[in-house]
UniProtKB/TrEMBL annotation:
Keywords: Bacterial flagellum, Cell inner membrane, Cell membrane, Cell projection, Chemotaxis, Cilium, Flagellar rotation, Flagellum, Membrane
Record flagged with keyword Cell membrane: yes
Record lineage: Bacteria, Pseudomonadati, Pseudomonadota, Gammaproteobacteria, Cellvibrionales
Protein name: Flagellar motor switch protein FliM
Primary role: FliM is one of three proteins (FliG, FliN, FliM) that forms the rotor-mounted switch complex (C ring), located at the base of the basal body. This complex interacts with the CheY and CheZ chemotaxis proteins, in addition to contacting components of the motor that determine the direction of flagellar rotation.
Location(s), subcellular: Bacterial flagellum basal body; Cell inner membrane
Pfam family of the protein (one): FliM
GO cellular component, as recorded: bacterial-type flagellum basal body; plasma membrane
Family membership: Belongs to the FliM family.
Entries under InterPro entries matching the protein: CheC-like_sf, Flag_FliM, FliN-like_C, SpoA-like_sf
GO molecular function (one): cytoskeletal motor activity
UniProt keyword annotation of Membrane present: yes
UniProt topology in membrane: Peripheral membrane protein
One biological process term in Gene Ontology: bacterial-type flagellum-dependent swarming motility
Length: 337
């Protein structure tokens, strides 16, 4: 005989509670508050109500850097821009890909896990055409494997892509991303379970002649957890860091700008009467010859002595003037025309 789960006293207490009006109303209120909800255990997808503006800014920085890398590789006809950022199950994303697709697995150190950089076949075909001087058009059979030339082009793209991606993440953290594996069949990629949520950053690769193609950065949502708070803060990824290309361009532009220079041989204060009485042949004593002053845009920069070099008047610099201090610092002697 089976043993009862509840004793007779417990059963009587429950029946008495149901007969009581206060107990019935309390039970009804509890049923109203704790309504059952459906939950799919197979997908393990957590609702994400918090946006990631920092990740969007990182993607835009990556698009700018990768565009410049492509310009250096295939010419100025290709532009990369951020299309959208999606959140969807990893298996659903893999199911949306065609074969072949260049699927490159990237280690996300110091973040946990790995990511995927996917380049669709159209992007690879068109960039190869551009690389060899073509117009970016392609006529390829669907589903064929990448050729040796296309695989070599992808091998040249990956270091440039990796450099741009690490530079884009620098305002958030010092990343050490690097590629560890390559595939062309989506079924062979295993960076997350099919039911896990992935963040898909879609980039549009636009060619002015041949049209558009896409490049994707796919990161498991779990890999972003260590930096999720920083990515969720507005402005966290917008910290300005030195751009070496822009810095060098600005430096060259400033150094090549035209600056008016003047050399004052000597100065002497006199009276207006003496000026009005000047006549041809008069001699004005100006003092020693080593007091010539060189100014650039009205700012004193050096002192020296006038001389002649190669038949032309020149200034031999004896000392430099430190800006803002008005003090002289002795420098090497040379001629400045």
């Amino acid at each position: 005989m089976t043993e009862s789960l509840l004793s007779q006293n417990e059963i009587d207490a429950l029946l008495q509670q149901l007969k009581s009006p206060a107990g019935a109303s309390s039970l009804s209120a509890q049923q109203t508050v704790a309504a059952p909800q459906r939950y799919d255990l197979s997908r393990r997808r957590r609702p994400s109500r918090q946006g990631l503006p920092g990740l969007a800014h990182i993607c835009r920085r990556f698009a700018e850097g990768f565009t410049e890398q492509l310009h250096n590789l295939v010419g100025p006809h290709v532009e990369v821009s951020l299309l959208e950022i999606q959140t969807l199950p990893f298996g659903e994303y893999l199911h949306s890909l065609y074969v072949p697709t260049s699927l490159n697995v990237m280690d996300l150190s110091p973040l946990p896990g790995s990511a995927i950089v996917a380049m669709d076949a159209r992007m690879v075909f068109r960039l190869l055409e551009r690389f060899f001087g073509g117009g970016g058009r392609y006529d390829s059979q669907p589903g064929r494997r990448f050729s040796r030339a296309e695989e070599r082009l992808v091998a040249q793209l990956l270091p440039r892509l990796n450099e741009s991606l690490n530079a884009a993440w620098r305002p958030v953290m010092q990343s050490h991303f690097h590629f560890v594996d390559q595939h062309t069949n989506p079924a062979m990629v295993r960076v997350a379970d099919r039911g896990e949520t992935a963040v898909v950053c879609r980039f549009l690769c636009s060619d002015v002649v041949s049209g558009d193609s896409e490049c994707h950065l796919v990161i498991p949502e779990a890999s972003l957890q260590p930096v999720r708070e920083r990515l969720a803060r507005r402005g966290a990824a917008q910290q300005r860091h030195a751009d070496p290309v822009w810095t060098e361009t600005l430096r060259r532009g400033v150094l090549d700008s035209a600056v008016p220079t003047r050399c004052t041989v000597a100065e002497r204060q006199t009276t207006l009467r003496a000026v009005t009485e000047l006549a041809v042949g008069d001699v004005i004593s100006l003092g020693s010859r080593d007091r010539s002053l060189l100014t650039a845009a009205g700012i004193p920069v050096a002192r020296g002595q006038l001389g002649v070099k190669d038949g032309q008047l020149a200034l031999e610099v004896h000392s430099l003037i430190e800006l803002g201090e008005g003090q002289n610092s002795t420098g090497g002697q040379h001629y400045a025309g």
